[in-house]
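Quick one, tokens below. Sequence please?
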């Protein structure tokens, strides 16, 4: 049989069939096919102008190539010494064309391929000044574009940038044209161009894209925006400087015509902190100094500073937890403009208060917050002629001195029993508290240092009685002051304690056929016997002495086991159950 491969990897499946129609099993034959197809590349010249067809092969002995366009006749051309050939071809119309190329060694076909090419007559656009992805154009720096025809007898070009109006540019006798252009703004641009023939024939549009960068630095701020009034006198703000220009040395800037400052950028950008000294209009001027000592045009960043008074408090810093309810703090009001004689302030939705400004325009008041959490202080000021400034909203956080208690033990569901150890976590917002004091059911106070590496300080308590229990907790500062006391009620059940050295809880140990001793201790008074079972096994009773019993269990299989234990008191009442899980190796 003969077979013409169509891919790099092929396989042949064969089975035999006898006269009776019975067939054998399939035999599969896999094989790889060496690539012999010639390489093809077309440099498009357009319509009516020569395009260049390049053919090449790595196969030795190739003497010629044959090519045809669509259903045309095949043309044979000799192969050069390097196994290549170049021939001009002329397309007469736009659209998709299929070129079939074959290579021959004498009369023997070596390989063949098809190459689809799209014929276009749109002009080519070239520029050494504006290209994508580089070089970028620069605002105010002139450059040029060269248009080259892909049709004969081109006499002019039509072009436009993005959505601008179309313009016409006459062509030189050779059909080319040069467009000189100076960008005035930074952007990503799209230039559309088409050629016009002597007979009025219009070509397809060519799209040429490029980027223009700004020769002025970019200035931005997340504190002082270019719209609206922000911040305040004496409130610092961050300003970012950046530029896409190459060969940058430093940024040179000045605020409101003051002395020039220098900022050394890293990778073309830097952030500086500036503090406005006046409300109203402020102007920041920034320019770039290049490595050759020249400067960019200046960028002016205009922003408005609010004339609202500026509030400062070391007792209750803005947006920061401090103090506690009932603890007074001092708040200083600084003027946001000249001529301030009076301040008016309101805490939350309470009564408005008035305080006179001093000779320096400032005033200090004492305020005592009444509740923990976020608290809003609203302050405004007035000048001697009664002009009111903008309002300042000052948020501060009053610490809650209460101690929060967290635990798996709670007041709704009984857990454990007498002798069970329980974890309790203490937390308070009051940073000044360095020690926690606690007592169980009115017993003696005990203390534990506040954890310095975690929010919650943990203590472990041993349950003393069944039923209702109360854990009392309070914080203490280094000055000996106490926080309010927190009483945390919880319920303790009647479950027994289970322990084993051979098979510790929640661990893998020992092994099959290794007996283990388990000790059961009553979780409530009066237990006379215990019942235990392992997994779904039969229950086993063991007598207790003084509320304690031991049992020996020998596992016959490995794996994870769960022993369920409960006690029974002398009056026949069963206690809560205890689940004790362990692993047998």
């Amino acid at each position: 049989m003969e077979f013409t491969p169509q891919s790099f990897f092929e396989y042949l499946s064969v089975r035999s069939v006898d006269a009776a129609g019975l067939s054998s099993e399939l035999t599969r034959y896999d094989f790889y096919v060496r690539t012999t197809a010639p390489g093809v590349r077309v440099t498009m010249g357009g319509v009516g102008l020569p395009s260049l067809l390049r053919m090449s092969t790595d196969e030795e002995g190739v003497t010629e190539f044959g090519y045809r366009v669509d259903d045309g006749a095949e043309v044979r051309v000799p192969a050069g010494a390097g196994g290549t050939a170049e021939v001009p071809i002329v397309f007469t119309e736009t659209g998709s064309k299929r070129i079939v190329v074959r290579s021959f060694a004498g009369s023997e076909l070596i390989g063949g391929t098809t190459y689809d090419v799209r014929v276009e007559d749109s002009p080519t656009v070239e520029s050494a000044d504006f290209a994508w992805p580089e070089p970028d154009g620069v605002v105010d720096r002139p450059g040029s574009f060269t248009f080259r025809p892909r049709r004969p007898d081109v006499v002019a070009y039509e072009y436009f940038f993005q959505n601008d109006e179309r313009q016409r540019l006459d062509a030189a006798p050779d059909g080319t044209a040069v467009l000189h252009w100076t960008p005035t703004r930074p952007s990503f641009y799209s230039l559309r161009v088409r050629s016009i023939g002597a007979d009025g024939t219009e070509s397809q549009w060519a799209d040429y894209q490029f980027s223009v960068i700004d020769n002025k630095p970019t200035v931005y701020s997340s504190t002082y925006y270019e719209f609206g009034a922000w911040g305040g006198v004496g409130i610092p703000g961050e300003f970012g400087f950046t530029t896409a220009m190459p060969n940058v040395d430093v940024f040179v800037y000045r605020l409101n015509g003051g002395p020039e400052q220098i900022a050394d950028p890293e990778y073309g950008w830097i952030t500086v902190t500036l503090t406005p000294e006046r409300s109203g209009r402020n102007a920041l001027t920034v320019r770039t100094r290049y490595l050759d000592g020249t400067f960019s045009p200046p960028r002016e960043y205009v922003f408005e500073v609010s004339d609202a008074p500026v509030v400062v408090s070391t007792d209750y810093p803005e947006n920061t937890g401090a103090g506690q309810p009932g603890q007074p703090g001092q708040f200083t009001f600084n003027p946001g403009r000249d001529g301030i004689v009076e301040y008016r302030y309101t805490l939350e939705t309470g009564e408005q208060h008035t305080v006179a400004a001093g000779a320096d325009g400032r005033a200090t008041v004492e305020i005592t917050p009444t509740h923990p959490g976020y608290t809003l202080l609203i302050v405004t000021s007035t000048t001697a002629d009664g002009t009111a400034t903008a309002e300042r909203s000052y948020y501060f956080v009053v610490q809650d001195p209460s101690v929060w208690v967290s635990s798996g033990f709670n007041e709704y569901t009984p857990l454990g029993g007498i002798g069970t150890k329980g974890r309790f976590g203490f937390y308070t917002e009051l940073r000044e508290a360095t020690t926690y004091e606690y007592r169980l059911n009115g017993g003696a106070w005990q203390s534990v240092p506040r954890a310095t590496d975690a929010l919650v300080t943990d203590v472990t308590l041993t349950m003393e009685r069944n039923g209702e229990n109360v854990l009392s907790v309070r914080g203490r500062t280094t000055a000996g002051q106490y926080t309010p006391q927190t009483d945390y009620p919880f319920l303790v059940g009647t479950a027994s304690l289970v322990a084993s050295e051979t098979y510790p809880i929640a661990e893998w140990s020992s092994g099959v056929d290794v007996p283990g001793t388990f000790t059961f201790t009553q979780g409530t008074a009066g237990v006379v016997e215990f019942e235990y079972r392992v997994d779904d096994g039969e229950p086993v009773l063991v007598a207790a002495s003084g509320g304690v019993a031991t049992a020996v269990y020998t596992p016959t299989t490995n794996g994870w086991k769960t022993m369920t234990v409960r006690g029974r008191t002398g009056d026949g009442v069963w206690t809560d159950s205890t689940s004790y899980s362990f692993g047998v190796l």
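The chain has no helices and 48 strands. The mean pLDDT is 96.
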